[in-house]
Amino acid sequence: MVNFMQCFQLKITTCESNSLHQLCGLKWAMKTRLGCLSNKSDSCSDFSEFLPPAQERSTRYLKLSNDEVTRWADSFDALLSNKYGLAAFRTFLKTEFSDENIEFWLACEDYKKIKSPAKMMSKASKIFKEFIDIHAPREVNIDHRTREETKQRLLEPTSNSLNEVQAKVYSLMEKDSFPRFIRSKIYQDLLNRTQIYCQRKSV
Asked: Closest Cα partner for 150 from 138, 166, 171, 136?
């Protein structure tokens, strides 16, 4: 009986020791991760955090000028025409759970480049089902008339079939999402970091 109790107590002690060891390991890992994040935030103009993983590997040491980031606030077109501005804007929209707008706009841009009628038909159908149709998984905010007219145009799609609906989504982002992006912490932090980086380089 004594031996059994001693073994039982030893087993409990061992489990507690293992749990404590795992907890310490977890705390160390979290501390290390926080330290990495802190160091990353001090990199000023390092833009890799806004890029998708595939791009991040090839642009790890990408640097942006303060003038370049400042120009993004001049106009919505200036933001979207800069691939890094576009990446930052997409990141912002994801935080607002409204990235379907920019993804739809980009899909339309790709659609207009298609030359093959068969590929155009396939792409048009995919865009309609994903973004335009009622209860589409990433439905964009458009009125009933625009949805129905677009549906009719896509029965015999041309390179211009999505122009009207794309323009409406662009206008919605320009009037609503773009001003919020310029005021957002994402943009303001990046603007400040590039400014600090430029000041350090000039010293």
From this structure: 166
For residue 46, list its beta bridge partners: 63
CA–CA gap between residue 189 and residue 191 (Å, rounded): 5
φ/ψ bin of 97: left (φ > 0), alpha (ψ from -120 to 50), beta (otherwise) = left
Answer whether residue 86 shows pLDDT above 60. yes
Report DSSP state, residue 174: I
Closest of 68, 59, 63 to residue 46, by C-alpha: 63
Residue 107's Cβ-count burial label (10 Å; 0-12, 13-18, 19+) is middle
Q: How many other C-beta atoms can be found within 10 angstroms of the C-beta atom of residue 130?
A: 17
Is the pTM higher than 0.85? The answer reads: no
In the block, residue with structure tokens 């912490």: 185
The number of beta carbons lying within 10 Å of the beta carbon of residue 25 is: 10
Residue 65, amino acid: S
